[in-house]
Specification:
Blueprint lengths: L3 H5 L7 H5 L22 H5 L2 H5 L8 E6 L19 E2 L15 H10 L16 E6 L12 H13 L4 E4 L8 H12 L3 E5 L21 E7 L17 E4 L3 E5 L3 E5 L6 H14 L5 H10 L17 H6 L20 H44 L33
Parallel strand pairs: 1-3, 1-4, 2-3, 4-5, 5-6, 6-7
Antiparallel strand pairs: 8-9
Amino acid sequence: MGTAAALAAAVVVCPGAAAAAPPPGACGSEPAPASPVVTELPWAQKTLDFPAVHEHATGAGVVVAVVDSGVDADHPQLRQPGKVLRGQDFFLVGDLPGGFDCVSHGTGVASIIAAAPVAGAGFTGLAPDATILPVRISESDGGTEGIDPEVLARGIWFAVDAGADVINLSVAGGADDHFVRDAIRHAVERDVVVVAAAGNGQEGPAPGPVTYPAGYDGVLGVGAVDMAGARLPSSQIGPQVDLVAPGGSVLCAARVAGHQYRDGTSFAAPFVAATAALVRSARPDLSAPEVAARLLATATPSPGGAAYGAGMVNPYRALTAALVDAPPAAAPVLQRPSPDPEQVRVSAWWAGRTAGARLLAVLTLAAAVLGAVVALVLTRGRRTGWRARRAELPPAEPVRDELPEEMFLVPPPPADR
């Protein structure tokens, strides 16, 4: 497993404002404006119970590559020494670092993973002691539109070869590109946990086309839910969804020194990447497939079925649950006890007596009813001399030409008085 110490000789931390500010002309348009600081404790941090999680692991010694729009390494929650490595920019020509961001997308992703706590802000990262390796492959604010797949693939290859333990890919699109597929295969073969966003193009309840890179083998695909645990309507459904995580109105860092509320699977994926970093920090003996299996096995089941994958990522359970590799033990053969002969005899005797009593009661009731019917027939027959009688109909009412006087609810007209 790679460590931050192993990378120190190869990459340089981005110190100071000048190093992390976008180089002149680096942004296609004006950089996103500064955002205000948010002091409140975000709902995702409450839901995932960060304080309880951090009692067991903080991500120390684990390198998480954020292959995205870059990372603002000067943000107050990301500028601690060793927090953000130099990284690499593959979007622009030249030997530029990955530690600057024009659109705040990669900065938000990196902060959800590893933002350090600071006074006056309730927000913090899920793995605050993890190290971020920024790999800049676009100036996009999400999706793969406008992202060159060869550039994305080069960024993934760089992250793997630079020693990343976890790679976060908050990009999604419908194209199965062989360059990206080969880069993912390289990461899987090098024992890297790869996490990718499932995408934000869902329309209606039916699963859509598979999205990539979440749809590749060995990648944990992540959907987004809101604070009620319901899937965001835009979060895509399909076999690429392995887990869900907070992705509706989640708070994250934004350039230059503030915070933003963001929506989408791009910001759900880093919660899973951070959980993988926590597990790799606490259990360095686990391989990448074992880490992924642990995250799936400890997820909190969701009532929404396949649209939620294995359920909501649960960092606390991923760190603390005692899982076993052995298959379930076979259920023992049911041994029925031999009946007691005396008890069988007594039960049979009581059953016979009960059946006899029921039959006697039925016969007695039938005889009583029959006797009553016979007595009634004899009595009426003697009274009429056993002669047949014809029913007499009541006399018919005479037909009236007008309503009777009492039907008037008001005094009758003068002619009738």
